[in-house]
Description:
This protein is an alpha+beta fold.
Amino acid sequence: MRLATFIDENVEAIVATAAEFARTFPAGARLDDAELRDDIALILDAIAKDLGTEQTEVNEIRKSHGQVLPLPGTADTAAQTHALLRAKGGFRIEQLVAEYRALRASVLRLWARDGIQLDADALGDMVRFGEAIDQAVAESTAHFVAEADRLRNVFLAVLGHDLRGPLNSILMTSELLTRVVADEPLREHTARLMRSGERMRRLLDDLLDYSRASLGVGINVKREAVDLSAALREEIDILRSSLPGHAILFEVDGGTHGSFDASRLREAVANLVHNAATYGDPDHPIVVRLKGNGETIAVSVENTGESLSEKELSDLFEPLARRNEESTKDTDRTHLGLGLFIVRAVALAHGGDVRAESAQGKMTFTLHLPRSAS
């Protein structure tokens, strides 16, 4: 009996064996029989159809390279759906792969018990079956990872949102204590409590922005007519106070009026200046430039420091990525490594972009922003 026919005639037994194997995992033990079986029968049906389809040598080579064409009249989504259900059910990715490994072994074992003859057709079926299982594993793992990332970002978004409520209560109470406490030593303690709370709030804001951007929602911007020069000058005055060991210069060229979310752009510039202070040479000034040019405005932050390779530049805006800090003694390790990721998200939300350049000991980040929403 050819393998495709055997699978069609023994689907129930194969699915039952696969479900029992899935039940051996802690997450599987919590699922009922229907949830354990989910799309296994559809996966087997797709495999049987693949086995029953003629395959040229060219297609065989394409399949070995992962370049698989969908079967005629099918969407080939069974393996993908199976992965999504397993991710939501609490399975780990190695357990998902183990399911396919066990499925491959059980099908071949049951087929052997049926008394197959190892002729050329049988050997060809075994090769085709292995290819089909490998393709199902590839589809499943890709969708499992994507769903796991999505669920993680949803969790982070919910966590960040829920933590802001009690944190706001702490900050309000701390502010009230600061106003009513007359004892100077105690005022120092309440002021320290407020500074710590504000740092926590910034971390939560970064976490929420990261979660929204990762989920494809993007961060919120509220455009209004503003002189960006005045807004950034105020932010730089604050940065000079918070970074007394660094000289920060501000240069303006051209018209700087437009429709922007000034608060978000102040946040982006603050992130870039803190990045420059962390990784740049403290003996050289940090230069913030604002230049109006026609329908766009460019905001750049430049510092002197170690040059980066093209690979390092391409990784700078990745979330949760941090640069090599071995040469930086005073690095602030209390951030999440999301600063540059959020800078890019702010630029994109304004319909612009951000670029990083490193040459001749200079590191420059430049936001290119349209003056008005498209």
